[in-house]
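We now fix the convention by which a protein and its fold are recorded. The integers have meaning only within a learned vocabulary of local backbone shapes. The record below shows the convention in full.
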Amino acid sequence: MDDKLSKRSFLFLFGLFTFVPLLHFPHPGGSFSLMMPFNIFTWEIAASAIFFSAVFLYQNRSITYPRHVVYLLAVPLVLICSGIIAGITWFNDWFFRSSAIFLGVAFFMALFQFKANRHTIEQACYVILAGMLLQAAIAALQMLPVQLLAGLIAYPPLPSAQGIFMQPNLLASYMATGSLLS
């Protein structure tokens, strides 16, 4: 596959992965996490990246591994073994969380198949930084006592920084991951 197309598709998917969670739809209720619209959109982009990397694998007939792939693959296996040993109380929750971990590893491995050069990776880091700054701006607006952009962003019942996902723990992990990557 053309390297230019590979790099453009990498940046396009990375941009979507960073900015699609900004689309806010109210939670329809229930405990199934894929019913949350930002989750399903984000997983659709990750699935697209995995699909495109499989196409690149098929066309190039070669696979690119990260340096410590054995350790990377050991993490989900150890988590699954520990879950089985400790006992599984809620099988559906355990299954979907384990699947999410495996799909996260598959997504990470898929990113290596795009064979992005240093410049493209730096551009992707700038995209992450822009998404992180937008997330921080939304969290700052949520802390104000006045809802300046009501209807455009979600506001918690009491002024507090909860971010796009309306969950402080996701805001913290998003900001920490974005800070480390960029």
